[in-house]
User: Which sequence fits this backbone?
């Protein structure tokens, strides 16, 4: 029996047989709306709270940890570390350690991370352009809820 990999509730993949997902293993189509599709993991990573903001920050330049913290002032060091490790594991961010005293670590986008920015930049532009309309809609909905 050949195994396929599907997304569990976390960011990890679990093995299942091809009969469990209903497709021959070699012909599994990618569809993020299919619960058995590994591409769901990718979409979940991109949709995490800090991923887009970290990618957009690294789009500016190569940054050290403290520089990222300076740009993302509302993230804790622990969460930033965890998110950077996850992005590095997924091949979106590269971490380079320099043998210096004190140690210096720099983060940069990989080519895969840079390619993701092609999708993220329009989302950023849309968010910034439509923020006033969203805020107005929220205010109207909140006001109506109090009546």
Assistant:
């Amino acid at each position: 029996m050949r195994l396929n990999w599907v997304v569990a509730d976390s960011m990890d993949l679990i093995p299942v047989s091809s009969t469990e997902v209903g497709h021959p293993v070699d012909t599994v189509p990618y569809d993020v709306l299919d619960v058995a599709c590994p591409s769901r993991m990718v979409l979940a990573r991109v949709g995490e709270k800090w991923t887009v903001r970290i990618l957009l920050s690294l789009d500016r330049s190569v940054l050290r940890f403290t520089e990222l913290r300076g740009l993302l002032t509302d993230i804790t060091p622990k969460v930033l570390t965890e998110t950077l490790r996850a992005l590095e594991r997924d091949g979106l961010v590269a971490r380079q350690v320099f043998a210096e005293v004190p140690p210096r670590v720099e983060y940069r986008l990989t080519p895969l991370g840079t390619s993701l920015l092609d999708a993220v930049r329009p989302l950023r532009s849309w968010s910034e352009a439509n923020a006033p309309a969203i805020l107005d809609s929220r205010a109207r909905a909140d006001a109506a809820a109090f009546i």
Summary: The chain has six helices and five strands.
